[in-house]
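Supplementary Note 3. Input sequence used for the single-chain structure prediction.
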Amino acid sequence: MADKKYIPRLKELYQKEAKNLQKELGLANINQVPKLEKVIVSSGVGKKREDKRFTETVELTLAKITGQATTSRLAKKSIATFKIRKGMGAPVGFLTTLRNDKMYEFVDRLISIALPHVRDFHGVPKTSFDGQGNYSLGLKEQTVFPEITFEDASVLHGLEITFIIKNGSKEGSAKLLELFGLPFEKENK
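The predicted structure, written as discrete structure tokens, is reproduced below.
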């Protein structure tokens, strides 16, 4: 008897609920339903870009949180007030792009484990969608993830998580993220 191939929980949920989402959004074709294409997890190093220990910690914690290697980002523009020159040697940030099963696993851990550990959490804002329906979420510190040890928590830094959604409008993308369980803030009436 062959073992069933493992499918991440949110991927399986999406496959089961895509038809319902199509009806709810009033779309003619199943291919028009918004779909999570990739998740980008990034962190800038700011003024501490010359501090080797800080940049190594940021790179290591991103790799631990996402489960894959990070990419360093060099400055794209020169900004005199920040003492940054285009392409200068020290990285100004790190990022990781997640796709397929790793992406669904990360989103599941974010929604079910990390966000409930955020202090004074009342939901994520609904105002963080861009014109294409992509959603960005910022976290002030990386310690909300269970992969982070006490030693990693000695250097605190923030994270930016961007959900890239194919065929997404703001409303359709919000419905997709609600399907996954992302807790949006309650609107005050």
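The chain has a mean pLDDT of 78. Helices lie at 9-25, 52-66, 100-114, 170-180.
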